[in-house]
Design goal:
This is Transposase. With about 375 residues, the protein is of the alpha/beta class. It contains 13 helices and seven strands.
Amino acid sequence: MSERTYIGLDVHARSIVGCALNIDTGELTRSRFEDDLLGTAEWVRGFGPGVRVVYEAGPTGFGLARHFRAAGIDCVIAAPSKLLRAPGDKIKTDRRDAKILATMLALGEVTEVTIPDPGQEALRDLSRARHVASADNAHAKQRVNAILLRHGILFQGGKSRWTREHLRWLHQQHFEDPALEFAFQESLAQEESMSVRLKRIDKEVARVAADCRYTEIINALACLRGISTVGAFGLATEIGDWTRFNGATIGSYLGLVPSEHSSGETRTQGRITKAGNAYARLLLIEAATVHKRPYRRPGILELRQLELVSPATAARARQGNQRLHARAAALEERHKMPAKARTAIARELAGWCWSLAAPLQEGRPMAGR
């Protein structure tokens, strides 16, 4: 049988639909498997040693690709957002999706997703668990504030909330209506529970970050203003191999570059593409807000962080902090919209993160700028 066979798989939790395309004869071979990795692998092996397999990235994860690669089968995972589909194609089935994947793989039109090893995926899951806990805690706080606001009760102890003084004030609030009192106390108890949960996860992240494969990169990224140990841990685990990019492509990968619709002599740019890793993009945008604050010399916490890295990395990080603050100040002088200015800083911050992390992974000296 021909060695040039390309197989597309439409993978679901309990079923796999396969379509094999022989590009010499144009023959299509289809099959369906019900939650059977071994049977799927045997079917793929039957097409010879030169077979290539592809399936879309999705909630089923990377287990199937790892299983195929362990069995000596060349398997790639396609980025769903990069798959081409005809505008007039309004029929979507598992069989058609598998055929489209096989055809695109044969044409070399598949944009591959990097497959992390189990260790990196475990660290990534810890980082994402922290993100979920932070979001849950924020929502719990919003619910408590919403109840008080709806009944005209405002904290008079200053603008800062969720401080010790604010928490004492919250516990002093009571309502005459039993149902309302129960709802408020339950919301407050939930917030306290979420806060304890978040602190517990933060401790675990700090412990793991201090001794893992990305510790050196985490320490370097945390030298940049706005990026805490938790943020650096998230960026390091989400991106993994920084050497895949350069200073320009890292922003594109994270979806921080403008979208574009150009035709003929008309060139129109729109909002950022928001392609790629949404969590890493969020971490950078959150960090970008810090850089509009004045920056003359490193603070105590920054100095402690700079002591954890090499002199070359420390110098590069300080250069980045100065450049990013100057850039933020220039955008503010031009009266740029805050959201656009923040996004521009996040895009440049991504490049500075790359300039710190990539040389460490490559083992080369830190370059100047």
